[in-house]
């Protein structure tokens, strides 16, 4: 029961074959068996979840139906504020912080009657690609607990993959939804920038951050985005136009579409198993009637460097609010400056401090034009390259990550090696375009491989159409073998 898809669970709730309380108890029971090893959650809200489940069942009994999430257990990444539930962004500097409000994405789920199972682990302030940078300990991959789940939304990806939630919410700044989804064998999707409100998301890099769903199927991803998308006056960057119909052509297959294979996202640095699975999937799309072409995005060679100037620069500004004065951790000192220094030195972890220092340097007088200014020019070039590529192809495809899940601790002392884990996903964040990862197989070690579909801004419908075709052609049905031990 804890491994239902959202669509199957919604149908079962409506025909009375299952109750929300049963679904919720199954998810919480799975968490009780897996959390000691996986550590997907920072907070499990047993009482609140069961109360919400009972309320959903009462609503069904009274004939009230608020939407597809009514009665569905959902896990929320712990950088999305939740009223009455501790929200830490996996940082000691926010330990014990209980928000007085819900972020818009959370509020929209609750408005449909979603059951919030708890808050999931992440790299501190979403800065990382392995969920090892959490101040409260790492999360582990359910396919192999000696491996990382990816990051920064590793906790949400693991909760969905392991069955302790049916859907997870994450945030994606440079691949933080898609990369962990790929490493955990689930579907992860980043919407067009601004399509989902960021109000209530603890900011990392405001021009890059986007909230999105982690699900078991592409159809579930569509349903989640339909619930989350839409203008929000509380977010100045929220898209003001009409929300597109994400289901246009959803089941039409890929016949007649042109699919662009990105030349720069293959070759050196990509594991053989990842490359082979990617090529097999492209061949399946070709056999299904798609026209496959190779496209070039020349600016991708420097996009990683640009990202790691823009994102730290924005994080250095955003994290200045954590000063020990208004909320969170506070270490007193004889002066305000010494108080702030002591608070931040003890409250921030090493990766966060590294990025704050890098970003502050990039923005400093004398270096702004040489670093941050140049990075923004590269970003403009990335956007232009994508626009040119979409004149040749309806969607672009690549592996989601250059490798499968790597061993816990293997890259923590090599920041550059860790940063390269996001080389396939960062470009879509720089461009502000949507992208999705779909599982397409296992490598020789039995670890999942993700296939990424990218589309132009507001092109979610064609992206979902291709992702659905991939899902059908590959028919990836494997589940983590450890689920049998935990059942």
Describe this structure in words.
This protein has 487 residues and is an alpha/beta fold. 40% of the residues lie in helices and 12% in strands. It has a domain at 6-249 and 465-486: Amidase signature (AS) domain (Amidase signature (AS) enzymes). Helix 4 (104-111) links the parallel strand 2 (73-77) and strand 3. The longest helix is centred in the last third of the chain and has 21 residues, at 369-389.
Key traits:
about 475 residues, alpha/beta, Amidase signature (AS) enzymes, 11-stranded mixed sheet, 16 helices, 11 strands, globular
Care to give the gist of this entry?
The protein is of the alpha/beta class. Helix content is 40%, strand content 12%. The protein has 16 helices and eleven strands.
Explain the layout of strands and helices.
Elements (H helix, E strand, L loop, with lengths): L5 H10 L4 H19 L2 E4 L1 H16 L11 E5 L26 H8 L3 E6 L33 H9 L4 E5 L6 H7 L2 E4 L20 E5 L2 H11 L29 E5 L9 H16 L3 E5 L4 H19 L17 H12 L2 H14 L5 H21 L5 E5 L15 H5 L6 H6 L3 E8 L5 E7 L5 H15 L7 H5 L1
Parallel strand pairs: 2-3, 2-4, 7-8, 7-9
Antiparallel strand pairs: 1-3, 4-6, 5-6, 5-10, 9-11, 10-11
